[in-house]
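Crash report, auto-generated. Payload:
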Amino acid sequence: MNLLPVIFALFGMGIYCLLSRHNLIKLLIGLELLGKATTLAIVWSGVIRNTLSYTQSLALVVIAIEVMVVAVFLALMFAFYRQSGTLDTDDLRRLKG
Amino acid sequence: MIYLTMGLMLVFALLAIFLKDILLSVLSLAAVSTLLSIAFFQFGAPVAGALELSVGAGLITVLVVLTISFIQQKKEIPHKRTITWALFSFIAAAAAAGMFMVFTPKAVVNVLTESPWREVGEIFWKVRSFDILPQALVILSAAFGVLALLRADNGRE
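Recovered output after restart:
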């Protein structure tokens, strides 16, 4: 059983979502997919190296940090929405300069 | 069984990216989290599985759905799609997979290892006690950052 294709398929989907989507919530979904690929890679490495307890403790921290990233992202998104009334990233360009 | 879990996870990840309805996208992401936690339980990693289920599928979904309900923008504004980004993502993921396979040391696959909760707790609080405190401070500072962001406009109003 090899999970590398699944891990990198999730990783590729996350990158694609971040690069191609223009909605801020879709960007958040892309970030989440990258985080899930990372968590899966960490736990899977523990399974194949037989260090599951240690990698589980690493995965706990990654999941906790992921929640904080989501919280900060949502707060920034909400602040942006209150100013511009949209979630489209093309409108973020108006903030330049 | 693990192949079914992984296959469903990829299908829901694709749905999360390509569905036009934002709410359905977020629910698909919650399904990805649930399937990931099922996979963790199948690997014999119940601690990570329980946290992923409660936080990834529960808390994050609630936060995002709550924000969407505040914002009231349920649909994605359509944009012209470019095949370039899809190609770039595929090449980046394939390159990362290639590097991972080249540089990962060969190891014996040992699935469903026994891992009691107590052992994870001991590693977490004893072996890694030095880096847990700074990480807790990082999370705390992020929480204060969120409070500051949400409070700034309230004060103005």
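Post-recovery validation: Helices of chain B lie at 2-18, 22-43, 46-71, 83-103, 117-127, 129-156.
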